[in-house]
Amino acid sequence: MNVLRNHLPTADLQRLDAAHHMHPFSDGDELNAKGARVITSAKGVMLTDSDGAEMLDGMAGLWCCNMGHGRREMADAAHAQMLQLSYYNTFFQTSHPPVIALSEKLAELAPEGMNHVFYASGGSEANDTNIRLVRHYWAAKGKPGKKVIIARKNGYHGSTMGGASLGGMSAMHAQGGLPIPDIAHIDQPYWWGEGGDMTPEEFGLARARQLEEKIAELGEDRIAAFIAEPVQGAGGVIVPPETYWPEIQRICDAHEILLIVDEVITGFGRTGTMFASEGMGIRPDIITVAKGLSSGYAPIGGSILSDEVAETINAGGDFNHGYTYSGHPVSCAVALENLRLMVEEKVVETVAADTGPYLAEQWGTLADHPLVGQVEIKGMMAGLVMTPDKASRAAFSTPAGYVGLKCREHCFAGGLVMRHVGDRMIISPPLVITRSEIDLLITRARAALDATLVDVQKRGLMAK
Ligand SMILES: *Cc1c(COP(=O)(O)O)cnc(C)c1O
């Protein structure tokens, strides 16, 4: 079998990786000079690298391994499906049992009135679908002028041309001539960094009202949709003020625009409800899903559509769009097994009632660390911001990310994968993490913050 159980020594792996493998979101020369960390196996919440070092996976891979690593049931589901029907398409008036079963299951789990799914291979593709879908929707309703999608700065919606355009990452827009036309951005609800003298509540309202101002500025007859993540993930786990989403929902209701809620991270229990939309009182027309849908065991994403949107698209003639792997049978079988395990093992209930509140309590203890300005958490996704001066919410005098990278390196050395976004540290562990594993995560996070504080003090970066 072509499974690499034994492997070359780390230095050889790194040399070959540097020679032939182009990494996403990486500075190639810098990475190749240093050598990538090679992960060779994983079980539950623990990763093992090519030197045999163990690390707690505080990011669930890339926000996706919600059911933890190495579950036999998932492998068995893929194996059985490959033998039964390894591939067939869903383009030309055909279908297959796994895609039918998964669609029925998603309709059951999704919020009321959302009973239709269009599939993609991941979140970026699904958001590209959403762009085409909402424009086609308005055209089918006789309003082809409604094309503009309003999105947010520092939002993340993927890395394809469409996904990156919807996203508001300036570093991504700076390369390759993005955004594509007819995408507009409003500011994010990031109170710590941008709230100034306003209270979080005032700031949440002000940032939400930018949506209404943007609609007025561009003209409602040109707007197709607004897209946002319930809690920004890649932007740094930014939990919006309580006032934000109710105001966004009011504005979407008052205007003739669709609401696309990107739940690629927040879907399937991450925030303590099956979808964050339910827990946060959001009523989407379209939900983007991926990541936790299969816990990363197979690539799959999709758009869950409201009945009204689906019926309009269905009545609008051919929708000239699809991917070879839309509704891939193996991915669907794996996703179905993932959802079965989640439901049977009451993972969402446990996050809501037990491990989520416990993580919140423990993560909260980091707030008294001298480096930490603010901690934020929603279910099983959490962030903290490091600052030289808590009172003034100041940023470090070093370039954004300098201190964050130091902290991340200390985390890795101490056996914890925690990611940094600028000088924010973020976690999004597997949803199956236990209380004792949470204790280990917090102990290692605190040790990394202590080591970072020593660095920062040595460089004289703290406020006097
Ligand atoms: C990861 C992510 C995407 C992109 O998904 P891919 O599977 O990487 O294409 C889109 N939206 C959000 C909110 C994400 O976190």
UniProtKB/TrEMBL annotation:
What is the official name of this protein in its record? Answer: Aspartate aminotransferase family protein
Kindly state which keywords UniProt assigns to this record, in alphabetical order: Aminotransferase, Pyridoxal phosphate, Transferase
Cofactor(s) essential for the protein: pyridoxal 5'-phosphate
Q: What is the lineage of its organism?
A: Bacteria, Pseudomonadati, Pseudomonadota, Alphaproteobacteria, Rhodobacterales
Gene3D superfamilies reported for this sequence = Aspartate Aminotransferase, domain 1, Type I PLP-dependent aspartate aminotransferase-like (Major domain)
| Highest taxon of the lineage | Bacteria
Q: What GO molecular function terms would the record report?
A: pyridoxal phosphate binding; transaminase activity
Give the family this protein belongs to, as stated in its UniProt record.
Answer: Belongs to the class-III pyridoxal-phosphate-dependent aminotransferase family.
Q: Which organism is it from?
A: Harenicola maris
Keyword Chloroplast included in the entry's annotation:
no
InterPro entries the UniProt entry points to: Aminotrans_3, Aminotrans_3_PPA_site, PyrdxlP-dep_Trfase, PyrdxlP-dep_Trfase_major, PyrdxlP-dep_Trfase_small
